[in-house]
Amino acid sequence: xxxxxxxxxxxxxxxxxxxxxxxxxxxxxxxxxxxxxxxxxxxxxxxxxxxxxxxxxxxxxxxxxxxxxxxxxxxxxxxxxxxxxxxxxxxxxxxxxxxxxxxxxxxxxxxxxxxxxxxxxxxxxxxxxxxxxxxxxxxxxxxxxxxxxxxxxxxxxxxxxxxxxxxxxxxxxxxxxxxxxxxxxxxxxxxxxxxxxxxxxxxxxxxxxxxxxxxxxxxxxxxxxxxxxxxxxxxxxxxxxxxxxxxxxxxxxxxxxxxxxxxxxxxxxxxxxxxxxxxxxxxxxxxxxxxxxxxxxxxxxxxxxxxxxxxxxxxxxxxxx
Length: 321
What we know:
The protein is of the alpha/beta class. The protein folds into two domains: 2-182, Rossmann fold (3-Layer(aba) Sandwich), CATH 3.40.50; 195-317, Rossmann fold (3-Layer(aba) Sandwich), CATH 3.40.50.920. It is built from twelve helices and 14 strands. The chain has a seven-stranded mixed beta sheet with strand order 3-2-4-5-7-6-12, sandwiched between helices. It has a five-stranded mixed beta sheet with strand order 9-11-10-13-14, sandwiched between helices. The chain has a two-stranded antiparallel ribbon with strand order 1-8. Strand 2, helix 2 (43-47) and strand 3 form a beta-alpha-beta unit. The longest helix has 15 residues, at 6-20. The radius of gyration is 19 Å and the shape is globular. The protein starts with a strand and ends with a helix.
């Protein structure tokens, strides 16, 4: 194992995939310069300007070019810089990339990765801090992955590059500098298989992406024995593991950075209760339905912190008999 930052783990994984397969290449703004978070640093020097491509500032063009290149047989990694900017390319993603394999009976495929760094980061305010995950899981044809550790940043990126389906990779901006243990040889992670980070009988806690270290810390410090699941991918997601745990514990807490209203946590709660029936306690912990403020104190007021998760864990573990 090697201790790496989230950004470095992802950078190494991309470099390994580009060495393995000459059809893999990347395009987006400022990639030759290393990317906004350094996740492409040094790759232009190794692979050249034909495989690490800095594009004009036009998200629809970047996304559309990625689709065209995928249809021609290459495996593009489409860098959106920040997830919010993908809104300028939603037609290409939702109406074209997600649908092309179905619309043409499998004769064409969009085997590409769309990297969307999302969530809060350094007081980036309302137009640079959104979590669009629930919208994306709603779109048939897309695989949606959301790594929460450096190891999974590498393993899920590798899996996404090798997938024959289009994969949206939601990378948490607030974790780019976070460090963790990464295997010397990273194996692609299967989509739809959660990582169980902790075990216990009192409560089932489900999370992903930027909330993974927050929830893991809270579970350790709460004094409550919880099952903690890092989903790793949101579509497909590991329904079987979560449902089995909730059936055993009878209590469910879902924690996500995104707005609670219509968030993916609602889908999890619905599927669990449809399968298990009424639970003794259920709660979703997420952001209020408000734009993310620029002001640091106001941003902190809506942030999901370990203290808030600890309160929720203790409240649910002690409820319902």
